[in-house]
Write a structure and sequence with these properties.
mainly alpha; Cytochrome Bc1 Complex, Chain D, domain 2; two-stranded antiparallel sheet; two-stranded antiparallel ribbon; globular; electron transfer activity; metal ion binding; Cyt_c-like_dom
């Protein structure tokens, strides 16, 4: 009986996160997007940034998108566009690593290994976009890099050389049975559990959603747009 109660409690919260995440992604820039074209193009990268890549859930470009969880990648108070800013970041990384990096190298590293360098003022919480639930393929990531290069710079497909882990992830696609929750979630009950400061969960004492709650732990506003259901369930249970 105790296990059953924990399961119901967990899936209620998960249902709330999934419902919330889908809405946040829509309002942060994603709209009705055209089908992707062939190959690596800036246009494809733009579609991916504002669509399947979920980038706009955490990042803005100028006044469009969300920049609470991640830096604004356009011209903003934080600095110039990302193509220009990446040159300075590359110099910092070159010094730290003892090898010469280009601005494009920095952009690729920020996607391939987002924990390698975290911009001051932000947390290490960017997802691995070539793994589930986002699961971008090499061409999609290449196009995304071109789109970022175009923000204050000139796109250069010849400079986009992706590391082996991105290609390896594409080769694993579909090889593993997808994880499935063991019962349906309840977003309404989950919201009540999350924000009830006298209830059994007490989530809002440490975590915030849409500006409401505590700021001790990570902001969970867009968690379902960037993390798998399995990750959310295991984070609650463990």
């Amino acid at each position: 009986m105790a296990v059953f109660k924990i399961s119901v409690f967990t899936m209620a919260l998960v249902g709330f996160f999934i419902w919330l995440g889908s809405g946040i992604t829509r309002v942060s820039g994603e709209g009705t997007l055209a089908p992707l074209g062939e190959g690596l193009t800036v246009e494809n990268g733009e579609q991916i940034f504002w669509g399947s890549g979920k980038c706009s859930t955490c990042h803005a470009i100028g006044s469009r998108g969300g920049s609470v969880r991640g830096p604004n990648l356009g011209q903003s108070a934080a600095g110039p566009e990302i193509a220009i800013r990446s040159l300075e970041r590359a110099r910092e990384r070159s010094t730290a690593l003892g090898q010469e990096l280009t601005g494009t190298d920095y952009l690729i590293e920020s996607i391939a290994d987002p924990s390698a360098f975290v911009v001051d003022g932000f947390k290490d919480e960017m997802p691995i976009v070539y793994e589930p639930p986002i699961s971008l393929g090499p061409d999609q990531i290449g196009s995304l890099i071109l789109y970022l290069q175009s923000q204050g710079g000139t796109p250069d497909p010849t400079a986009v050389v992706l590391p082996s882990e991105i290609h390896a992830a594409a080769g694993r696609s579909g090889a593993v049975e997808p994880w499935a929750p063991y019962m349906d979630g309840d977003s309404v009950a989950g919201r009540e559990l999350f924000f009830d400061l006298e209830g059994p969960a007490l989530c809002a004492k440490c975590h915030m959603i849409e500006g409401e709650g505590g700021n001790v732990g990570p902001d969970l506003t867009s968690i379902a747009g960037t993390r798998t259901t399995q990750f959310i369930v295991e984070s609650i249970l463990q």
